[in-house]
Write a structure and sequence with these properties.
Layout lengths: L8 E4 L4 H11 L6 E5 L5 E5 L7 E5 L7 H15 L4 E6 L18 H12 L3 E5 L14 E4 L2 H11 L4 E5 L5 H11 L2 E11 L2 E8 L6 E9 L3 H12 L4 E9 L5 H6 L6 E4 L11 E4 L2 H12 L11
Parallel strand pairs: 1-4, 4-5, 5-6, 6-7, 8-9, 8-11, 11-12, 12-13, 13-14
Antiparallel strand pairs: 2-3, 9-10
Helix pairs in contact: 1-8, 2-3
């Protein structure tokens, strides 16, 4: 007599509970019960309060700093593995530490590779993530990686705006591939910003490659941190005759005085996903949920179906 396969189970790291609840609802099942115990020195211990033996376990958590968020994901993966889960899928809507994907100067780490190895060592058998800072990070893993694109969330919204003379822009040379992909679907022109950095998060000079006169511009990037690049690009484009400038960024890190920069900028609006929870509200920031996209991919992974239809880019 065949033993039935246990139902999948979904658990959330504490930093992503709100998003995980939306994902679980779209998946069609409740979140599993996790209790986290804290020691007085800051150490913590997550505990699954239900059996996961033989189950496919999905653990949802974005690993943005501080490092406790990554550590919590690692501990929960390890706990699931030691509790005899059949598969452990780490669902990281935002894959933190991804900007350190290569040695750009001597004697520095490749943090993205280190994080990939830690996730696998902890016991992750599959990774689901979205809009990696660099596509090649997938090669740091020996386990399957489902790399989703937030374009499936953003494109319907952009089409709904019905902007005339639409132009897609990349805030830097590295994002040109992403910009061209959006322009292909929207049948629009492309412009590129060329920037020089004085140091990390500080721009010394920016030039615009292309014409934005009389255009409604949409900047496309994978993340927004200090918002210095986006607000500077918006200023340059408005000075060059753009009618309006919007920005689409998958991951809203928004550190330092980013909210203030956005409020005082010439950006019409900043459109982001809920891969990272906002620290405060802003009338210029619109949040689109990625929960249905992630849930649909989780369902397909659980039933061993193709997810290629989710790759618009």
């Amino acid at each position: 007599m065949a033993i039935p396969t246990p139902e999948p189970k979904i658990f959330a790291c504490s930093q992503s509970i709100v998003l995980a609840e939306k994902i679980a609802e779209a998946f069609g099942m409740p979140l599993g019960n996790v209790i986290t115990s804290h020691y007085s020195d800051g150490e913590f211990q997550p505990s699954f309060e239900e059996s996961v033996r033989g189950s496919r376990v999905f653990i949802i958590g974005s690993t943005f700093p501080n490092s406790d968020n990554l550590m919590e994901m690692l501990l929960m993966i390890d706990a699931a593995k030691r509790a005899s889960a059949r598969h452990v899928t780490a669902v990281l809507p935002y894959f933190g530490w991804a900007r350190q994907d290569r040695k750009d100067k001597p004697r520095v780490p490749i943090a993205a590779k280190l994080v990939a190895k830690m996730l696998e060592t902890a016991g992750a058998t599959r990774i689901i993530t979205m809009d990696l800072h660099a596509d090649q990070i997938q090669g740091f893993f020996e386990k399957p990686v489902d790399h989703l694109f937030a374009s499936t969330v953003f494109l319907p919204y952009l089409r709904g705006l019905k902007l005339e003379n639409l132009t897609i822009a990349s805030p830097d040379m590295g994002g040109s591939k992403r910009a061209y992909a959006y322009s292909k679907f929207l049948e629009s022109d492309v412009v590129i910003c060329y920037k020089q950095r004085e140091k990390a998060n500080v721009i010394s000079h920016m030039e615009l490659i292309g014409d934005v006169t009389g255009k409604n511009v949409v900047l496309v990037d994978d993340m927004v941190d200090t918002a210095g690049t986006l607000t500077k690009a918006a200023d340059v484009m408005m000075e060059r005759g753009a009618l309006s400038v919007r920005a689409i960024c998958t991951h809203a890190i928004l550190s330092g005085n980013a909210y203030e920069k956005i409020e005082n900028s010439k950006l019409e609006e900043l459109i982001v996903t809920d891969s990272i929870p906002l620290k405060q509200d802003s009338k210029k920031i619109r949040v689109l949920t990625c929960s249905k996209l992630v849930a649909d991919v989780m369902i397909r992974v659980n039933t061993n179906r193709s997810i290629s239809s989710k790759f618009l880019m």
